[in-house]
Amino acid sequence: MARFSLGFLIGVVGITQFSYLPSLKLTYILILMSVVLFLFPFFKHYFLSNWSLFFVACCLGFSWSLIIAHHSLSQQLPKKVEGKTLRATGRILTIPENYSGIMHFDFLIQRLETSVSIHYPIIARIKVYFYKNSKRLINLKKGDIWQFTVRLHRPRSFWSPGCFDYQAELFQQKIGATGYVVEKFPVRLIHSENKHYFIDNLHEKITTNVRKILKNYPLLGLINALTTGVRFSITEDQWQVMRGTGTNHLFAISGLHLAFITGIIYGLVRFICCRIPSVVLYIPAPKIASALTLLCAIFYSAIAGFALPTQRALFMLSVFLSAKIVGRHFTNGYSFFFTLLAILMIEPFVVLSASFWLSFFAVFLIFYSISNRLKSFNKWESWCRIQITLSLGLIPLSLLFFHQISWVSFFANLIAIPLIGFIILPLSLFGSLLSLISFRLGSISLILSEHLLEFLWKILRFCSEIPFTQYHSYLSMRWIFIASLIAVLLLLGPKGIPGRWLGFIWALPLFFFEAKGPQQGDVWIHLLDVGQGLASIVRTQHHVLIYDTGPRLTPSFDTGKLVVLPFLQTIGVKKVDLMIISHGDNDHSGGANIILHQIKVDKILSSIPEKLFLKIVGPEKTMDLCKENMHWEWDGINFDILYPPPNDVYEGNNSSCVLKISNHLHSILLVGDIEKKAEDYLVRTKQNKVFSTILVVPHHGSKTSSSITFLNQVQPAYALFSTGFHNRFHFPHQIVLNRYQRLGAKIYNTAAEGAITLKLNALNKKIEVETYYEKNHRFWWD
């Protein structure tokens, strides 16, 4: 079972490494190979007879995932209808969630047509957003059939280093498009089937009761997350505490929560059955306890919405409890690998999820490292050893997926897990269910659990505020990740493994290897993909500059948090020397606040008035005005502010800071959103000073900028556009593109290429260009 499961896993992972999806015809060849390999055990060759099943599994895993991938991609939105106004009829698949005035849900389309009744192929599933919290949204229920007027786009995420691959998540969920309801058109309820969704109605009722009872309590969102899996009420400050202590997994219903609940129920039922002799005469107490525990586990998972981590834990638990019910015994290894294989067969692209790897690797570490030794320890020693194993063993995966680890996570989890698992979680769940019968009695239990959580939260907050408890890194090279995994397996291996001390040597690259950066006289510019906005990072040998920070639309959609900070972590930046906010528009300044609160920034330059600056970043920070003729030098690179003039009246776009960066071979011009007025000033007063090899195109390619006179003076060899995918302004404008093409400039656009990196070498005239799309493209991006 182990070889077959691992082979199937390797086959599935193999397909995810392709930039373009192979033809389905390949499955015929692989199936034929599987048949041939399956026959090898009948021959005498030792290697083939022992490993043929492994290779068969690899072929089958690859073939099965290839078939699923082709099916999922066939259900994506046709490119020809992207951005068009469409009438969609279908069923609401998930319970609508409202966050920051935006309601979203999954929608199963049954009919898709234009206003003139032109029908399009059915897209199985889409994610729909309401951008206004109007009264009509109150009546949206899971299971109801509605007709909406929508505008849809194919899935798209930020293509920048370190960013979460949102497209991979949507592909895994088989979502073929995302879009929003067009408010000016009416919506229509076609048919209500909500009464058939008992569990979902119960889920909604419990969520409503918890909100009513704890509406004035600070940790309402955390209690809701524990009871129903709804996490949109958790604040950014609370997320920060959880990330700082490594406890965010405790507030996402998963196998850990299921294990605590089922363990308590199993022990309680068995205790009661053993006190009733007339019952155990016919059915043994363990079988009764196992059956009731399995039913409760299914019920709790259903209340939690059958999230993927819960599904995996429920499946493994079902194997274990079913074996007890029928009187069979399965080893831990058999249960583990059987569960792994079953989940991969049901949903192969679950391998794109971080939770899949973290949950299975955590269970593997316990079985591999200490399961056979736990009986020799008392309960407290066993608990500490499990925590040490998981805290150390999950370091490589935590750095790979989240780019950070917390040194206090061991102590925080040592306190938090038993307190939440044995007291707060049972009290919260009991109170939420009891509130359906007696609102007052349920309130007592829920309020008590909230007070206990407040006590725990004070400890966690204290731990998160201890300085130097966070280690940030990014496993950008696969060999470092593999080396760290080998280190973990050696150091945490069972007794008897030779050379365990070598694990320390294998771990060295994880903490001491530094990726290559600019040398003396070099300058690298990274234009990040932040959608419709601008964020760029400039690096010299010993300094880092941020020019603009991208937009912030909601607390959860802040490109400073989603794009800029993850990128800084990938390149190992601990401190920023200078942040320039070109002007006050949200698409250039929105991400500044979160960046300034998450990483040390020595100095801020901007042209915006003080009142606007305080509104954007708060009163804790100060700035200097960006003025013409400012100059400094870093590592042999010259930096010059060319605009705006001193004492200039703030005019929004036309007050953008203009920065020129140059070495003795090349130069870069960053101009923000300047328009023709500012361009004419630069041409008139700076003349040859604006001549640059690389130009970050003004105002994203708007017709109000990139005047012919200005471009003739700059003469860029490279024109970099920072625009949003299918942005509503239709940037860059075709007239502007034509101007750059006539100049012979090489054109790059973040909407098409993702993040763009240009490396200017002091010893080489050739400029090295890298695009994130070309380097990291996966088949689900198309």
TrEMBL record:
Write out the annotated subcellular location.
Cell membrane
Single GO cellular component term = plasma membrane
Q: Which Gene3D superfamilies match?
A: Ribonuclease Z/Hydroxyacylglutathione hydrolase-like
Membrane topology of the entry: Multi-pass membrane protein
Per the UniProt entry, the signal peptide is none
Indicate the segments forming the Metallo-beta-lactamase domain, all copies: 532-725
In terms of NCBIfam families, this protein maps to: ComEC_N-term, ComEC_Rec2
List the protein's name.
DNA internalization-related competence protein ComEC/Rec2
